[in-house]
Amino acid sequence: MAGIRITHPERVIDEARGLRKIDLVHYFEAVAPWLLPQLQKRPTAVVRAPSGIGGELFFQKHASKLQIPHAAQHEGLDPGHAALMTFESVDAIVGAAQMDAIEFHTWNARVTNIEKPDRLIFDLDPDPALGWDRMIEAAQLTRGLLEALGLRAWCKTSGGKGLHVVVPLARHASWEAAKDFARAVAVHMASTLPDRFSAKMGPKNRTGRIFVDYLRNGRGATSIAAYAPRARPGLGVSVPIRWDELESVTGGAQWTVANLHERLDKLHADPWDGYGEARQRITAAMRKQLD
Ligand code: ATP
Ligand code: MN
Question: What end-to-end distance do the CA atoms of the chain give, in Å?
Fold first, then answer.
């Protein structure tokens, strides 16, 4: 148990499911062994929902506006702004939940080497009219391209509508090189499979297609952390999966704060086995293959 006093524990945050603030706190306590490694040393923004998920949501990237008990503060990493926050303990995530935080969004770098991203994220955003099978196919095609370039990739649900494909990197490339590479991957996919993919943001550009969002790879950009819930009806959770189970996944919000424990209890191994040991770089030769 965390040493945080929870005020208004019975307050309902998801009317449709009757999920209360205290349920979210219990979720965070239970999932902490999985969630904390995902947050470790990463500047983290939170989405707070003081009036529940039906009310106004606040995306908070810096420490100043509202102090979150036990969140660590890092001055000077985001020039011209207040301190960035990291969440390194159960008390810090439960403290955030006490301040009505639901979502945790992390940078692609850690405070120990903030100018060198340690992963790329490809966010696959479908035209809502497309079936889920197209999303599965898109993730597999993204993986196929990355593997052909020599990069291993891992997959997670977004907790919302889609999937995220994640490529761990040794901390070598600059932000500019990482984002340029991610953009080149997206553009390559859109130009070789234009009926399936778009590399341009905006609903009009992805009609009948899936937008490969590479824009989350710039300095200061964030994405939902694995094992973090979403402030949306049902409180879906972003969940790492194995590639060989992707075909049986039914949607981006298949797992929620209410049912994720069923999956975690049954796991025999980390679905992202090997992720932490991957020591891969993006190279000039890879970049050239994308042109
Ligand atoms: P889905 O699968 O439903 O698309 P997702 O996580 O991929 O879920 P969004 O929730 O639309 O997509 O993500 C929005 C992105 O923009 C996230 O990467 C988040 O970190 C970032 N973001 C969200 N709100 C703000 C904000 N107010 N200011 C800056 N960045 C934000
Ligand atoms: Mn998305």
Answer: 53
